[in-house]
Design a protein that fits this description.
By secondary structure, the chain is mainly alpha-helical. It has eight helices and three strands; from the N terminus they run H-E-H-H-E-H-E-H-H-H-H. Strands 1-3-2 form a three-stranded antiparallel β-sheet.
């Protein structure tokens, strides 16, 4: 079963956010429900591509932050697993049979405010842009330049300086 990045975002959005393991389990369940083989690793590359394209964003799990505030000494309180959210370039779309997933998976609905994670995503975007510019990866620079117009309002962070750096990097070649 081939899924689009928007469909991955739709599955994640159905729960408000999922860890990578939870998303892999959800996708394996979908494939199995449609007669395919249950394989937790089958969509690893698609998940990576969705993160790279900002259809999904991986942020520090807010549950870890809350646990830290409650009991910072208790290591068991931390999942250590980033939470995947529908990202700024996503148009979340549910694949067939996805509406049943909340009844199948033992995952509670999460609420994550993009205001709480916007600065984290903006910093990831800045680092991604710096890496692309340093590597002179024109394709990635062009992609990030286009993406910056969606990432900026999603994060609520001014990315004009990053956009200028990306634009300058396209003009030097």
């Amino acid at each position: 079963m081939d899924l689009t990045e928007d469909e991955l975002a739709g599955v994640v959005d159905l729960f408000g956010g999922l860890t990578r393991a939870e998303l892999s389990e959800a996708l394996a369940e979908l494939v199995y429900r449609q007669g395919g083989e249950y394989d937790l690793s089958a969509h690893a590359d698609t998940i990576d591509a969705a993160i790279r394209s900002y259809h999904l964003v991986a942020v520090a799990n807010p549950a870890d932050r809350e646990a830290t505030e409650r009991d910072w000494a208790d290591e068991k309180a931390h999942s250590g697993k980033p939470l995947l959210l529908a990202g700024p370039l996503a148009f979340p779309t549910l694949p067939s049979d996805a509406r049943d997933l909340p009844h199948i998976l033992d995952v509670s609905k999460r609420t994550v405010d993009t205001d709480d994670v916007g600065h984290e995503v903006a910093e990831m975007f800045r680092e991604d842009a710096r890496s692309a510019i340093d590597a002179d990866d024109q394709s990635r620079i062009d992609t990030l330049l286009d993406a910056s117009y969606e990432v900026e309002p999603w994060t609520g962070v001014d990315l004009a300086p990053v956009r200028q750096d990306l634009a300058a990097a396209t003009q030097t070649n």
